[in-house]
């Protein structure tokens, strides 16, 4: 269990045989038809990346509610990561965000470019 209004689903076993973006769109449509609830879906290689993808899907109508970071062009991914404040990253929180920002890590892109030894 995680939250009443969020869930994580591991589709990694189906990634090679199915178009996960289409599966996500189908899920959105069924949830809307059955429950009348609007849903956005973020596809990523981790829960954190999936939440970032979901954030992108919510903020950008061009994604039609589904953002697939796994198959996104790296240049596009960098563009969107540069638009998201590091404080939006799941688990960072205000205290950690301030510390990261003091080290000039202000965006998701900045955070993604860090190389930890």
SSE layout and pairings?
Elements lengths: L19 H16 L5 E3 L3 H13 L6 E3 L5 H10 L9 H10 L5 H5 L5
Parallel strand pairs: 1-2
What can you see in these coordinates?
The protein is mainly alpha-helical and 117 residues long. The chain folds into two domains: 1-72, no CATH class; 73-117, no CATH class. The chain has helices spanning 20-35, 47-59, 74-83, 93-102, 108-112; strands at 41-43, 66-68. Strand 1 (41-43), helix 2 and strand 2 form a beta-alpha-beta unit. It is globular, with a radius of gyration of 15 Å. The termini are far apart. The mean pLDDT is 92. It holds the Pfam family IMS. Residues 1-93 form the UmuC domain. This is DNA polymerase V subunit UmuC.
Helix segment count? 5
Globular, elongated, flat, extended or rod-shaped: what is the shape? globular
Biggest sheet record: 2 strands, parallel
H/E element order: HEHEHHH
Radius of gyration: 15 Å
What's the number of structural domains?
A: 2
Beta-strand proportion: 5-15%
Count of β-strands: 2
- Quaternary state of the chains: single chain
Question: End-to-end span in angstroms?
Answer: 33 Å
Low-confidence stretches: none
How would you classify the helix and strand content by structural class? Answer: mainly alpha
Strand order of the largest sheet: 1-2
Helix content: 40-55%
Mean pLDDT: 92
